[in-house]
Amino acid sequence: MAEPPRGIAPEHRNAPPPEPAKDTRLSAAEIHDNILEPAERELVRPVWAVLLSALSSGLAIGFSFLAGGYVQLLVPDGLGQAAAAAVYPLGFIFVIMARSALFTENTLVPILPLLNRRDLRTLWRVFRLWGLLLLGNLVGAAIFAWALASTPMIDAVLAAPLAKVSMHATAGGFWLVAYQAIFAGWLIALLTWLLGSTRATGAQLALIWLATAPISAFHFRHSIAGSVEAFYRVAIHSASLGQMAGEFIVPAVLGNAVGGVIIVALLNYGQVAADRRG
């Protein structure tokens, strides 16, 4: 009779083989569920809570514009766009890590409860949330832009690079802005989905940078960050409010909504729904 292998404790000699390691990444369904619970709470938050959170976001997002103008002073002209892209995530980091409410993040979040229930009450709550977020975000963006242009908030040497950045960021006209805004909305809604996969602060910071730097690098249009630049142009009298509303703010909002709702929310929800039906 063969002896059992040496070096193995008797109680483990007939033990079953160990199970293979489970997947260390969350599934799409698990990410969906991580987003769904806070989304339900967001839909029923009090009006003033949403408005104040949105106002905070509109103010903080302005630091992306300010940082982009500042780095123009530090690099040669040929590197200005790349340098601006590198620092563009600053405002988004402030907003997202502080858990303030940004309209473009919420092209995904409240859509998930709507897709799960598909009733008029939830649809109304989605439109209510979007309206409050846009109002608060745009007011905050306008205040930040006015402070930059009309108060001694920054050194006068920054005025020229800020004007240059704002002209470049808001040019193009209705249809080009709307089209390029689709991709910015896609990236921000995708970022929201990705953030639902991790609680690690370092990973979240990396994801924010990776998802938002391309918006500036590839000249996509973000409705709220770009509105700071649009309102800055109004404050320095290089464009009228009507011009900026019609040529940038409105098309950017529409494009961001299309990119967030259709490309990310519907497709990502669709794969989860298909998996669960299967």
Q: Any overview of this molecule?
A:
The protein is mainly alpha-helical and 278 residues long. It has 12 helices and no strands. The longest helix has 37 residues, at 241-277. The termini are far apart.
Short summary:
The protein has helices at 28-43, 47-60, 62-71, 80-87, 89-97, 111-117, 120-150, 159-170, 174-195, 201-217, 223-235, 241-277. The chain is mainly alpha-helical and 278 residues long.
Features:
single chain; mainly alpha; 12 helices
Strand content: under 5%
**Count, helices:** 12
Helix-strand makeup class: mainly alpha
Percent in helix = over 70%
Element order: H for helix, E for strand = HHHHHHHHHHHH
The backbone outline, from C-alpha atoms, is globular
Question: If you average the pLDDT, what whole number results?
Answer: 89
Rg measurement, Å: 23 Å
Question: The biggest beta sheet, please?
Answer: none
Let me know the number of strands. 0
Task: State the end-to-end CA separation.
Answer: 51 Å
Stretches with pLDDT under 50, minimum 5 residues: none
